[in-house]
Task: structure prediction
Amino acid sequence: MKVKSILLMVLMFVSLGCFAAPSIQVTLLGTASATTISSQRYGMATVVRVNGKALLFDAGRGALIRLHEAGVDLRDISAIFITHLHSDHLTGLPDIYATAPIRGRNVPFDLYGPPDITRVADGLKLMFAPNNAIREKDNEINAWASNIIVHPITKEGVVYDQGGVKVTAFLVDHGQNVKPAFGYRVDYQGRSVVISGDTRYTANLVKHSQNVDLLIHCVVAARPEMIAAVPDTMNHLYGYLASPDDVARVLNETKPHLGVLSHITLFAGGGIAPETDDMLHQSIASKYKGNFLVGHDLETYDIFADGHVELDKQAANTHGDDAVSVSLTGSH
Ligand SMILES: [Zn+2]
Result:
């Protein structure tokens, strides 16, 4: 009887473990860099779902569509964090800003980023001022929702702390003309994810990524013949984005439970093809023996309470097109 009870408890424990909800879910919405125009890789954006909150990091091309595909309701976005003010981290923002109120969002977005994020917010409001005025008159949107609560980040540290979810901004090195550029770390109940932002190797990212469960890191790569053909161009790129060697170094110095590449720049031209995912993986795997993957749009990574991280095969792209407005009496 005693043995049976123990067996039952073990079985219950195992099955509970199997079905335990992840502590943090991270979905790669877009994984491309600025010059990539692709239906496979949309612009840079990542959503972190934790404790009932959806935190959006960067909002590149197509972020709105990817949010929808990933099943994130615009009303549920708690805050938006921009790493730096390059266009490929922002071009999806106008779409999100303008669409949220006509999809029933009735509160403003909280928008975090480098100090000039105030100019971005002012620009958005100016761009859509006529639209907002029209829709307010037609009672299609809540006027309050067209505001933006701006949080310029002037120094490193915790910038968001709500419901046990902490977001820390830290400085990264994206070249001398992009200052400040931030990476972000999300912590919740001992579990964590770091989003590198755009950066070359920097010891500060290593410092802020200690004991992290999931590390999402940018990369720029090219075939050896490309590097040999245009060494000055490649050195210029390596001056502000991480090479595969840089990524391997960061992974070796942080040893996350899982590393995932995003903001993937595969440099090509002059008849020389871009590296394949396998080539990119191999170039890092030759120098780093831990777990890491080349990321793709709409992949969701689950971080569990014990710290292990899994690619969630069920979560990706479960929400198809939605032609019907959910909230309005006459949307235009
Ligand atoms: Zn950039």
